UniProtKB/TrEMBL annotation:
It comes from the Bacteria. One of its GO terms (molecular function) is metalloendopeptidase activity. Transmembrane segments: none annotated. Residues 166-263 form the M23ase beta-sheet core domain. CDD domains: M23_peptidase (cd12797). It comes from Lysinibacillus fusiformis. Pfam families: Peptidase_M23 (PF01551). This is Metalloendopeptidase.
Length: 284
């Protein structure tokens, strides 16, 4: 049986039948072997290699894998269950933004938390970072705390069940608070969204150099700074929550060239010299 990490090489070798035999019965009922072969042959054109970008564990033991080709213009996303059966497989064309992908913040920024967190969304394509399609959040990160492939314990509908909820949310660099909100209720139950106030409770910091940190989804009334305050890197800003357009308690962090969330352009973050945080990484 093909191991998950071998999928891209097997596809590139043209052994499509081997992959097809390992795909779920449901998929095979929807797509014939001939159709699958034709799709893969077209997809493989002009590709010399694939690069594994991320591994994302699911709480049921399954794992998602993402590859891109060396040009970044084609991607594979596959989900293998515990028996190595492929439960989902997509071959996807990808948009690339090379003109901004290689421009990093002049400010050296730190992670806005203590201890070890997990990069749930982050990277320079939409397969590992859904924000990438939106210019104002293109290089955003979402961080959660994972324990045994889960971000929560007990009842998943309760904010208090999530390991991230109530954790300290820190300033990533020296700056001035230019905007903030502290009065948005946390989403209850988890899984509901506040699309009218997408940022929820937030702090925007001006670091100079036309670089503004957006720190989003704070816990209701937990923010301890106010507009005009000067903060130092590592200062407490508030507590992690689940306010705004948020799927669960987590940290959303991005940097942009303006404090206007709708008309700004995201800038790739220079994490104090580390430039390659990506979905599936544990960081601290």
């Amino acid at each position: 049986m093909m191991k998950p990490k071998d999928l891209s090489d097997v596809l590139l070798s043209g052994n499509f039948e081997k992959v097809y035999k390992q795909i779920s019965e449901y998929f095979q009922n929807e797509v014939s072997l001939k159709q699958f072969q034709e799709l893969c042959e077209e997809f493989n054109k002009d590709i010399t290699k694939f690069i594994l970008q991320s591994e994302l564990p699911y709480d049921n033991g399954a794992k998602q894998y993402v590859w891109t080709d060396d040009s970044g213009t084609k991607g594979i996303i596959a989900v293998f269950d515990v028996d190595y059966v492929i439960q989902a497989l997509q071959l996807i064309p990808l948009a690339v933004h090379h003109e901004t992908d290689e421009i990093f913040t002049k400010t050296n920024l730190h992670l806005p938390f203590r201890d070890e967190w997990f990069v749930f969304w982050g990277g320079t394509n939409k397969l590992v970072n859904y924000h990438y399609e939106f210019e104002n959040q293109r290089y955003a990160y979402d961080f959660v705390i994972m324990n045994e492939n889960r971000s929560y314990k007990s009842d998943p509908t309760l904010n208090e069940s999530y390991f991230a909820f109530g954790k300290e949310y820190l300033a990533p660099a020296d700056g001035v608070v230019v905007s903030m909100e502290n009065n948005v209720e946390d989403n209850r139950p988890v899984g509901t969204f506040n699309e009218e106030q997408p940022l929820g409770n937030y702090v925007i910091l001006d670091h100079g150099n036309e670089e503004f940190s957006y720190l989003v989804h704070f816990k209701h009334q937990s923010i301890v700074v106010k507009q005009g305050d000067k903060v130092k890197q590592g200062d407490l800003l508030g507590l992690v929550g689940n306010s705004g357009n948020s799927s669960e308690p987590h940290i959303h962090f991005h940097v942009a060239d303006s404090p206007n969330p709708m008309n700004s352009k995201s800038i790739r973050i220079n994490f104090n010299g580390k430039r390659d945080l990506i979905q599936g990484n544990f960081v601290k």
